[in-house]
Amino acid sequence: MMIFTKLLLAHLIGDFLLQPLRWVIHKETNKIRSKYLYLHILLHFIVTLILLWDLQYWKLAVIVAISHYAIDLAKLYAAPLFRLKSIPFFVDQFLHLTVLYLVAYQGDWLQIIADFFQKLDWPLVTAVVFVTFPAAIVMGKFLEAMGDKIELDHKSLPNAGKYIGIIERLFVLLFIILGRWEAIGLLIGAKSVFRFNDLKESNNRKLTEYILIGTLLSFGLAILTGLIYRA
């Protein structure tokens, strides 16, 4: 576990703290010919060796550096194929973390994964999954008739309300599991403050009632899920 932690820390330092934006731009422009690509890999190798602080692990540092080069190079050429830059970014990070995991645990990684799934709290996983998109779909069905009577605000971000609801339900579920009911009140209060000006300016009673019902339903589903999990 300690080796993986050190490899992860080295990755975070090399990929985020020691990589200026101009390096990233230069790599995206010049790709394999970019000098900063190779400097970036060299820094990863050095930081990894320093954090491991044991020369017997030099092979691990070499494997990490070579794999990092291959993944970064593939990302540079694949990124233009995606409309959203976030997709190749997250794929890139996932591949890096996978390599670090395999390098750190070597032959034991299959057993570690098996132990992880055996010890996993499946009721908790089910609760977390439910309060995300399934709960959003359930709420959409409940509010479908009311939503048809509300004028859409085209200035809003696409699906912003859905993702706000998912995040707030996850927070409510977390607070219930931790037994911090007062935090749920603070969350409701904070959301009310942010919504107050919008509702005041719109002067739309139907919209106000729709948002209020949606908020109460969202919190209610999360609270019910949390209570069922704890029971």
Automatic annotation (TrEMBL):
Stretch forming the signal peptide: none
Q: Which UniProt keywords apply?
A: Membrane, Transmembrane, Transmembrane helix
The record lists the organism as Pricia mediterranea
Instruction: Enumerate the transmembrane spans.
Output: 6-25, 37-55, 61-82, 120-139, 170-190, 210-229
Highest taxon of the source? Answer: Bacteria
**Biological classification of the source:** Bacteria, Pseudomonadati, Bacteroidota, Flavobacteriia, Flavobacteriales
Please report the name of this protein according to its UniProt entry.
DUF3307 domain-containing protein
Alphabetical list of Pfam families matching this protein: DUF3307
- Keyword Nucleotide-binding listed: no
